[in-house]
Amino acid sequence: MTCHLGCPPTHHDRYRLPFSSYFVSFFNDAIPTRRQASETSNMSGFGEAAAAISLTVQLFSLSVDGLRAISRARHSTECILNFSIKLDLEIARLVLWGRNSGLTSGRLDPTLEPIRLLLASILGTLSSSIQNADELKGKYGIRLAEESKLHTPATNPPTYRTLETLDILAAPMISRELERQRELSQKIKSQTTMFQKTKWAVFDGVKAVRFVDDIKSYVDSLNQLLTESQKSTLDSETAAMRIAILGTNWAQPIKMLSTLEKATLGRYESIALPARLSRLRLELEMEEATPSLPGPEAIPEGALPLGYDQMQALNADMSLANFDNKTVLIEWRTLKPSEAAGETGRARMRQAVRLAGMFRELRSLPTDYLVLECFGYVDQRDHIPARLGIVFNIPPMPRVVTSPPTKPFNSLYEYLSLKDFEDFRPSLGARFDLARKIASGFLQFHQLGWLHKCIRSHNIAFFPESERLSIQSPHILGFAFSRPSETGISDRELPSNDLKLYQHPAYQGREGTGYKLVYDFYSIGLLLFEIGKWKPLDYYFRRLQTQGKSMSTKLFGSRLIELESDELEFRTGTHYKTAVLTCLRGDFEMEGEEPGEKQLKLAYFDKVVKSLDLCRA
After folding, report:
1. φ, ψ at 311 (rounded to 5°)
2. Any idea where the Prion-inhibition and propagation HeLo domain is (predicted)?
């Protein structure tokens, strides 16, 4: 049973708490009246400062402190990392819930006042379970460290510093909220001192995971009680947390990504799959042996048996073919003669095998990544020119498979430029939706450290399900020139002037220049500009040339900003303009030295993806 991180568990009966019976009965037994709570506070030594804090806030603070203490429990390194990752994710979710409910600020959001007592009952149960040492020991296999018998060197706990490198609770938003929560803790010291001083040990890893499952159920239940607006904000903040976690610069990234994958597999696939793909990307980059994949179908055993007579070229980079009574799309990577033979040729083929394997892994989340289902790869190193291809399945649609196959899709560029589609102008709302999908789709690959390198409207494809044109279901093409890393996976493309329009000026004509994440962002900005104005870039380039203005592909982006930004804002609004100009200018307002890729991804999410989410027609 799986769930995306942060989503309400309405379809997970295993984790849903029976509100109608359990909490009503618990409320009568465990939640004190306001007078009782006040008396309890005074008796416990809270003092005037603590008395000013509501019971709900106190229970929230106690829960976070207790969980953080337990997440640092001692055990063998492998066990503690697995347990700590699982529990730290739930702590992070609880903290984000506290942020959206107002509790990390010390006061419940007014919209949640009608259910204050219900929230207190859930938090009361949670904090009570953490403080019950007998239950922790008997039910969950967690006991006080002095009771444990972890004496062997193999079970020495990893240092707190080691655990911090997982970057879950160190994610920017989480760490800020934890700091605010610590300030609350200082006001109720008598209750939190126990958590700060108590050391725990995990002596039964299986039982300990049950503890995490129960904590998850509480957090799921709390998330269900947020307003729709608060849930939307929570989803956005959870996405930012995932970007921060996956963007961590670990000293041993493959090992840590593997640990993260194991800890989240079957629990949070929105983290497990990117962790797995990031690991595979690194293994491909490092030219290691075939990655150790659990399933025999993850990487095809051999090249698909597609011959030349079965293919129809669409252009130098793509072909159509009939395979297994289906129409498939092949994206080619052309090899230099020196690359096609000998050990270099075999290395290039291994890279194609791994690349096909990575695309096959995406099948579990095809919507997020906007890619076609991958069938495998084709080896045509004996072709002139030599080439390797990745084979994608065309989505099922009402059509007849013909030989040779007919082109089954239209590109965004064709919609924008061909006379056949001049009467097709989607509504502004539909274009906003398309822009959001594309901006988020590319970010999914960027989370993996995977740069596309050839972002343009020619590589956004639509496979119509009927004769009616639509932009509802975009797919990203052009992976023949994508690169999980700068070296090895693909050569530098030699584009025409029309294609150079999409390239960052710093990358044009400089063979020795490494490709950077901001170059993809720049191309995304131009793509968003085309969607907003519903005109192709070459239209504006030709128009500037005919106006007698000094123009080159390197100057094009800056001139476009200068001459078209006001009109873009008039047509699409301030938020859309902000997203476009942020990409084109690289204006992510990052302080200090040149930001790392994780900071850039977070800034892109905040200033581009979230700005597009605010666009309304």
Report:
1. -110, 150
2. 49-233
Average pLDDT over residues 142-168: 55
Mean predicted lDDT score pLDDT of the chain: 79
pTM: 0.82
User: Looking at this protein, which amino acid is placed at residue 540?
Assistant: Y
Structure tokens at 425: 């102008």
Amino acid at 490: S
- 390 three-class SS: strand
Whether CATH 1.10.3470 fits 19-248: no
Does residue 403 have a pLDDT over 80?
Answer: no
Domain ranges of the chain: 19-248, 249-283, 300-408, 416-617
**Distance separating alpha carbons of residues 239 and 171, to the nearest angstrom:** 11
As a CATH number, domain 300-408 is: 3.30.200
Tokens 């030594």: give the residue: 45
Cβ contacts of 432 within 8 Å, gap of 6 or more: 572, 576, 612, 615, 616, 617
Q: Are the folds of 19-248 and 416-617 the same? A: no
In which band, very low, low, confident or very high, does the pLDDT at 177 lie, cut at 50, 70 and 90?
confident
Tell me the sheet residues that pair with 312.
Answer: 320
> What are 133's two structure tokens?
């040492």
- pLDDT at res. 232: 93
Structure tokens at 543: 């128009």
Question: Token pair of 478, please?
Answer: 């052009």
Cα torsion 154, 70, 95, 79: sign = positive
| Tokens standing for residue 612 | 């597009």
Crossing angle of the two packed helices 342-361 and 269-285, in degrees rounded to 10: 180
Residue type, 83: F
Q: What is the chain's length?
A: 617
The topology (CATH level 3) of 416-617 is Transferase(Phosphotransferase); domain 1 (1.10.510)
> Closest Cα partner for 534 from 421, 454, 408, 437?
421
Q: At 10, phi and psi to the nearest 5?
A: -60, -25
pLDDT in tens, 210-250: 999 999 999 999 999 999 999 999 999 999 999 988 888 88
pLDDT digits (tens, 9 = 90+) for 20-33: 333 334 334 444 44
Helix (H), strand (E) at residue 392: strand 387-393
Side-chain half-sphere CA neighbours of 389 within 13 A = 29
